[in-house]
Specification:
Blueprint: H1 2-17, E1 30-31, E2 35-36, E3 39-40, H2 45-50, E4 54-59, E5 63-68, E6 81-84, E7 88-93, E8 99-100, H3 110-116, E9 121-122, E10 129-134, E11 137-147, E12 150-158
Parallel strand pairs: 1-8
Antiparallel strand pairs: 2-3, 4-5, 5-6, 6-7, 7-12, 9-10, 10-11, 11-12
């Protein structure tokens, strides 16, 4: 009886801490400078699909879009993971459960974004889009959509990402 009580207390503590129900044993929801968990920029479509993170592929051999498994969090239908037939994974859209390595999530303030990314610049063509190099990966950048001084969404993408 005592063992079951201790197990219940431990399970409750993990649930309160946010570890229960995560798709990954380590609970890491970081969209870092190279990718998200086993999903990496430049990775082939086959390797990306084999991560088990993606569902609902659509498109053609030139450019395919996948969505994250719902257990990874929600995102807009305009987002997703874009995979080029030639270059592999070119863009990884963040979800409601993800954060950057610097701790930025959906709902973060523009002030916090500017503080964490000193190289942040506003896109000259879109007043609501901000860009910054992905710290530690010279081949990638983060793109943040900001409305009302609040981060609405974000993606990690290759710098020279053409149409896909």
């Amino acid at each position: 009886m005592k063992t079951r009580f201790v197990a219940a207390v431990v399970a409750t503590a993990f649930a309160v801490a946010g570890f229960a129900g995560t798709a990954h044993a380590d609970g890491d929801n970081t969209l870092g400078p190279f990718g998200y968990n086993d999903l990496k920029l430049g990775q082939s479509e086959q390797a990306a699909v084999e991560t088990g993170l993606l569902v609902d592929g659509e498109g053609d051999q030139v450019c395919r879009r996948y969505y994250f498994n719902p257990s990874e969090g929600s995102s807009s239908r305009a987002s997703g993971v874009f995979i080029s037939g030639l270059r592999g994974v070119t863009l990884i859209g963040g979800t409601s459960r993800m954060r950057t390595a610097e701790g930025i999530t959906e709902g973060a303030s523009l002030e916090s974004l500017q503080r964490h990314y000193p190289q942040l610049v506003q896109d000259p063509d879109s007043e609501w889009i901000y860009l910054t190099p992905a710290p530690g990966n010279p081949s990638a950048k983060y793109r943040f959509v900001v409305y009302g001084d609040v981060v609405d969404s974000f993606v990690l993408e290759l710098n020279d990402r053409a149409s896909c």
